[in-house]
Design goal:
Blueprint lengths: L1 E8 L4 H13 L3 E5 L4 E6 L6 H9 L4 E5 L1
Length: 69
């Protein structure tokens, strides 16, 4: 399992966190959202899910992934 931390713009409430966590679950990843720091930590199986897919799942919810690290 790999974990990546993504800096995400546009998150402001519990609904935002739930939407992102649900989107990641749908593609087979697990996400933890920290609204104060504006980061999402995603844990995923790199043989099944790409970082691009994780970013796309978040951005499809209306948020902007500004950096990964």
């Amino acid at each position: 399992m790999q974990t990546i931390t993504l800096h995400v713009k546009g998150m402001s409430c519990g609904h935002c966190a739930n939407a992102i966590q649900q989107a990641l679950t749908e593609i087979g990843a697990k996400g933890q959202v920290n609204l104060e720091q504006a980061v999402v930590s995603a844990t995923y199986e790199e043989s099944k899910i790409s970082v691009s897919a994780i970013k796309e799942a978040i951005e499809e919810q209306g948020y902007e992934v500004v950096s990964a690290g």
